[in-house]
Design brief:
Number of domains: 1
Radius of gyration: 21 Å
Shape: globular
Distance between the termini: 6 Å
Oligomer: single chain
Number of helices: 14
Structural class: mainly alpha
Largest sheet: none
Order of helices and strands: HHHHHHHHHHHHHH
Helix content: over 70%
Length: about 350
Amino acid sequence: MTTEAAPKPDRHQDEGLHLEFTPRKLAIFGLFAVLTVIALYLLLPQLAGLDKTWNRIQNGRPGWLILAGFLTVGMFGGYVTQFHAIYETRLGWRESLQITMAALAASRLFAAGGAGGLVLQAWALRRAGLNAREVGDRTVAFIVVQYLVYTLTVVVVGFGLHYGLFAGPDPFAITFVPAALALGATVVGLSLGFVPTDLQERLHRGRLKRLAHLPASASAGIREALERVRHPDAALLGAVMFWAFQIGVLWACFHAFGEAPPVAVLILGFFVGMLGNLLPLPGGIGGVDGGMIGAFTALGTEFGLAAVAVLIYRGFTFWLPTIPGIIAFVALRRTVDRWGRNDPDPSYT
C-alpha cells in the first residue's frame, strides 16, 4: 500500500508542545541510565550478600539466554504491530518502527510510567500532520488496549491464585489486593467512555470548552479501544504479543539459572513488579527490578534466583530498546525533516 507523504503541519500545531529531542540529550540520559544499571548490577549482589548466588551467572545455560534474545525481538514486534494498527491510515511500517523504537528508548530514559515515550510519540505524530484531537484520541486507544491486557490479566491470575484455581502460593497482599485494585482501576477508567465524545461542541463558554478536551478525547479513545477488543484486530494482537513476549523473556531467564516458577506465579510476579515503573526513575531502574524481585520472593521464589533472573531480564528489555531506539530516533528526525519539507518519498509504504 502506498501512502502519501505526511502533510506539513501548520505553525500552530505545536503550540503547547515545547519539546526539543536531540541526540545529545538522549546521549546524556543514556549515559546516566548506563551508569545506574552498572551500579545496580555490581552493587546489588554485594549489598544483598549474594556472592555465592551471583555465581549462577557463570554457570548459566546460554541456550536459554539466546532464546530470551529472540523473545525480546518478539516484544518489539508486538509493540510496532499495535502502533501500526492504530495509526495505519497515516503512517507506514517504516515510520511506525522509527516512532515506536524511539519512544521505547525515551520511555526508559526520560520519565516515569512510559510518559517520556508518549511525549515523543505525540511530538512525532503532530509533525506527521495529525491534529491534537486525533493524536489524543488514538493515543488513548493505544494505551487502553495495551493496559486492558495488563489489568485483566492481573484480575484473572490474581484472583485465580487466591482462590486456588491456579497452582502456586497465594499471599493475600500479592494476589487478592493487586487483583482488586486492577479491577477497580479498569472499571473507573472505562467509565470515562460514557462521557459524550462531542462534549466540547456542547459547551459554549470558552474555558469550559477547553477543559472538556481531555475527557472528550479520553471517551473517544476508550470507545475505539473497546471496539477493537470486541472485534479483535492487529492492535489487540500486538498488545498481547508485547506483554506475552516480555513474560517469555523472564521465563527464559529463570530457566537459564534455575527453574521458572509456576506460570501463574510468573505472570503475576511480572505484572506486580511492573508497578515499579511508576516511580520517577529512568526506565523504572531499581523500581521495577526491586518490585519484581520482591513480588517473586513473596510468591515463594528463592530470592537469589529471582534477583539474577530479573536483573538479566531487565538487561534484555532495557538495553535492546534503548540502543536501537537512539538509532531509530536519529532516523526519525530525518523523517520529520522530510515531512517538514513535504517531500514525497517513493519508499513510503
